[in-house]
Automatic annotation (TrEMBL):
Origin species: Flavobacterium tagetis
Source organism, top-level taxon: Bacteria
Residue stretches making up the RiboL-PSP-HEPN domain: 16-208
Entries under InterPro entries matching the protein: HEPN_RiboL-PSP
A Pfam family matched in the record: HEPN_RiboL-PSP
Organism ancestry: Bacteria, Pseudomonadati, Bacteroidota, Flavobacteriia, Flavobacteriales
Protein name (database record): RiboL-PSP-HEPN domain-containing protein
Amino acid sequence: MFNDLKTESASKLVEVREFLDLTSNLIPPAPTPTPNSLLTAKGLFYVHVYGVFEFTITSCVKKTISAINIESTNVNNIKPLLLSLALNPEFDSLSSTKNRNWTQRWNLFEKIRDNVIAQISTDLMPTDGKNIRFAQLESIWKTFCISAPILNAPSIGGRLKDIVDNRNAIAHGNNTPAEIGSRVSISDLYNRYNEMSSYCSYIIQVFEDYVNNKDFMI
């Protein structure tokens, strides 16, 4: 089920690597200053690699939800915290009502009483909607009750923060890509690329194992 995602994520990462290789080959040796256009290219690496990471994690969540739906599992047979997704329409109805609405409360618990089939919208992403950092990953892991570590290496949390911060600085106009690119060497960017490439592979494997082992069930 995840083979197509592995291929697509890897293909997108190859594009990042090829662009990084092109940039590296065009940078003149010291002491010649790096042209502004190549500093810009270095800065845009952050936008590029974050995009692949976000695609990978959101696609994993969608595929996992689809796998849960295919199983047609009753709500009482899935892990309790996963009910926050399975009963999302009922929770939304409750949260949108200012006054107590007993009918909506009854509807929620009737779904549990009747042990209905869990059908989850693949558009749901159990985060606060912000760019994906450790806190958002933690929310995803907790919602799905994933036992595997969130990070495949301790350094990834800080690395991800660095990538998101620089991506946002460029996207929001706080810094130009050239300003961001001037702060790092091309070898620094290769290190970031290698770490994020490894992490994307790890994320896919975690979700694939989760689905194959049916870890969403009690």
